[in-house]
Amino acid sequence: MKKGGTRRWVLMNPGPVNVTRRVRQSLLKPDICHRESEFSELLQSVRSKLLHIFGVEKTHAAAIFTGSGTAALEAMLSSYAEKHKTVLVLSNGVYGDRIRTILQLHGSPVKTLSVEIGKFPGDIEIEKILQEDPSIRAISMVHHETCSGMLNPLENVIRLAKKYKKTLLVDAVSSLGGQKVDVKNIDYLAGSSGKCLHGYPGLSFVIVSKTEAEKNALKKSNTLYLDLWNTLRLEEKNDTPFTPAVQLFYAFEEALKELAAEGLQNRIDTYARRGLLLEKGFEKMNLKFLVEKKYRSQVLTSLWMPKNLNYDKLHRTLKKNGFVIYAGQSHLAGKIFRVSNLGDMPLPDIRKFLVTLDKILKAL
Questions:
Q1: Are residue 91 and residue 31 in the same domain, yes or no?
Q2: How much is the pLDDT for 4?
Q3: Around 113, how many Cα atoms within 13 Å sit in the side-chain half-sphere?
Q4: Which of 100, 67, 74, 12 is nearest to 350 (CA)?
Q5: Which residue numbers in the chain have pLDDT < 50?
Q6: Which tens digit of pLDDT belongs to each residue from 148-176?
Q7: Three-class SS of residue 62?
Q8: CATH of the domain at 323
Q9: pLDDT value, residue 8
Q10: Distance CA 10, CA 345 (A)
Q11: Which residue, 203, 233, 261, sits at the end of a domain?
Q12: CA-CA distance, 151 to 299, in Å (whole number)?
């Protein structure tokens, strides 16, 4: 698996992802200054393409940050947080808990409805809390809980948020572009360039409704670098508050061009085919899934480690064969392994991975 003298790994971790040659080559474009018109044009191209692909150019605005998906998540949450605004956090894993942590760090009152990994709070339970606590102003959740590979029922929460007139803040970092997301009916959405959008890590964004943007345009922030409202205000004026990762914008623009040419639904369908191929392969190997079939995402699968098999040994052996998998997090560390199909991953790569994994499991 050599390419140009350098080993190519098939990255089956949930980001960074393998990118296409076109995206990689875009990094070689000329160096430009971020205070010049050349970068302004690039910035607006990325922002407009992002909104257009998800059909929200008339209803939403986009602020781009130099930072990982967590940077966008913290920008979104910290810019919403206020001492008198209680946020209901729906959590079923590591990334749901991260939402709670960020809100608490920024002084926001939080009410958390937590359930174990692999489950999600029921509609009746959520509705009961919304009815009983009038101090709740917003609901926040993760769409795809990457620690488990569970796709949370976003549509149900959107319906409840609308019914009870609550602001909705969604972490869609590892689902946007690979799963259906009703962006139009979400007030705040955090995303990343380096997951299902097939760019490099290092750029992230918040897509926010224009109604919320106008309401909070002059709001005083409790953060400098991650000030959503200041970033949005400056980017609307072809400016940026700090030095951005210019070359990553080139790559993200190319990745968005590829997605636009492919078509969003076609991209989602491609992920469905990949997820199904992996699922069938794992079933043939008699591997046990962490999450029930009806709740699994099509972009990442978590599997229980087979008895008498050590994760480090499995990881090391697969890597020698050109494939990088991912470990479990928190209390699942060492108990599960995760297989992602994010990024530029043709079906032959997945088939070869399944053959390789089967041989390794039989040998070990």
A1: yes
A2: 44
A3: 24
A4: 12
A5: 1, 3-5
A6: 999 999 999 999 999 999 999 999 999 99
A7: strand
A8: 3.90.1150.10
A9: 85
A10: 8
A11: 261
A12: 9
> Based on the structure, what is the number of domains in the chain?
2
Q: Say whether both 197 and 105 belong to one domain.
A: yes
How far CA 319 is from CA of 12, 215, 330, 338, 356, in Å, comes to 10, 50, 23, 14, 11
Query: 174: helix, coil or strand?
Result: coil
Whether residues 328 and 232 share a domain: the answer is: no
| 246 and 344, same domain (yes or no) | no
* pLDDT for residue 6: 62
pLDDT at res. 1: 45
Query: DSSP for 217-263?
Result: TTPPPS-STT-HHHHHHHHHTT--SS---HHHHHHHHHHHHHHHHH-
CA distance 21 to 116: 41
Residue where a domain terminates, one of 261, 290, 314: 261
Q: Which domain holds residue 359?
A: 2-17+263-363
Reading the block at residue 187, the tokens are 């007030």
Residues 238 and 271 in one domain: no
* CATH number, position 246: 3.40.640.10
- The SS3 assignment for 19 reads coil
Residue 254 has a pLDDT of 98
Q: H helices of the chain, where?
A: 21-25, 37-53, 69-80, 94-105, 123-132, 154-163, 210-215, 228-236, 246-262, 264-284, 311-320, 347-363
Q: Residue 352 has what pLDDT?
A: 98
